């Protein structure tokens, strides 16, 4: 609601949709716009309001969709349930707060909302950029790589311990094993693994490499001297 208020100061209309927990704030566009530019606007607004954004090293906060600035041809970004669609898990529709809870009233309400144009968006984000580096999956060195030769132990390979992955840009994306242990990351997109070197991986929800290694049953060994 804080975001919604400050969006309205920019004359950006937004619609608050109920959800299983909390809500979703939708902004509608006059024409398809670049995800990278929309993300700059929302991240900048959240930063100015002190609203935490999930994934920037934080396990809690708002989630921003689109989740990626860009994806390569033939690849897919995150799926999202469209407004007034039926949630397949909850088997129900989630209404917007701004109108009576009938489809007609809701659609009429959504159609009435002002849409953001490309010109407006460009003005909002002039001179701004996404705060770096925490918004692109910054990868951290996951394990000490070099093993003494001849000890018979092989390197830890994260890809051998996770389920299916999909390619998003330079990364594989998968469900984070540590998040999964606590029933989180059901979208299966918290863990980013650098394709060109899978020793580099990162959980957007903030799980440490120690947590991830423990979750797959390969805890990081403390070297004994
Ligand atoms: Zn995680």
Largest sheet: 5 strands, antiparallel
Which descriptor suits the 3D outline?
globular
SS-based class: alpha+beta
Radius of gyration: 21 Å
Order of helices and strands: HEEHEEHHEEEHEEH
| Number of DSSP strand runs | 9
Strand order of the largest sheet: 5-9-8-7-6
Task: Give the amount of beta strand, in percent.
Answer: 5-15%
Specify the number of helices. Answer: 6
- Could you list the spans in which at least 5 consecutive residues all have pLDDT below 50? 133-150
Could you walk me through the main structural features you see in this protein, from its secondary elements to its overall organization?
A hairpin with a 2-residue loop joins strand 6 and strand 7. 24% of the residues lie in helices and 14% in strands. Helix 2 crosses helix 4. The protein starts with a helix and ends in a 10-residue tail after the last helix. The strands form 3 sheets. It has a 5-stranded antiparallel sheet with strand order 5-9-8-7-6, with no helix packed on it. It has a two-stranded antiparallel ribbon with strand order 1-2. The protein has a two-stranded antiparallel sheet with strand order 3-4. The radius of gyration is 21 Å and the shape is globular. It is α+β, with helices and mostly antiparallel strands and 225 residues long. The protein is built from 6 helices and 9 strands. The longest helix is centred in the N-terminal third of the chain and has 15 residues. It binds zinc ion. Zinc ion (ZN) binds next to helix 5.
């Amino acid at each position: 609601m804080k975001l919604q208020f400050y969006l309205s100061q920019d004359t950006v209309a937004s619609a608050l949709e109920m959800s299983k927990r909390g809500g979703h704030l939708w902004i509608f566009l006059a024409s398809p716009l670049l995800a990278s530019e929309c993300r700059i606007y929302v991240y900048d607004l959240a930063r100015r309001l002190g609203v935490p954004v999930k994934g920037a090293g934080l396990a809690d906060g708002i989630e921003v969709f689109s989740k990626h600035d860009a994806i390569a041809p033939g690849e897919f970004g995150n799926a999202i349930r469209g407004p007034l669609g039926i949630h397949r898990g909850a088997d129900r529709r989630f209404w917007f707060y701004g109108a009576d809870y009938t489809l007609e009233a809701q659609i009429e309400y959504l159609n009435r909302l002002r849409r953001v144009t490309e010109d407006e968006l460009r003005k909002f984000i002039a001179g701004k950029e996404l705060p770096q580096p925490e918004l692109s999956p910054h990868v951290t060195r996951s394990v000490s790589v070099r093993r003494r030769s001849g000890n018979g132990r092989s390197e830890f390979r994260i890809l051998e311990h996770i389920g299916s992955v999909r390619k998003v840009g330079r990364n594989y994306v998968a469900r984070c094993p540590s998040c999964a242990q606590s029933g989180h990351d059901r979208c299966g997109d918290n863990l980013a693994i650098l394709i060109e070197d899978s020793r580099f991986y990162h959980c957007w929800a903030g799980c440490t490499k120690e947590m991830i290694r423990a979750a797959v049953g390969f805890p990081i060994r403390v070297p004994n001297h």
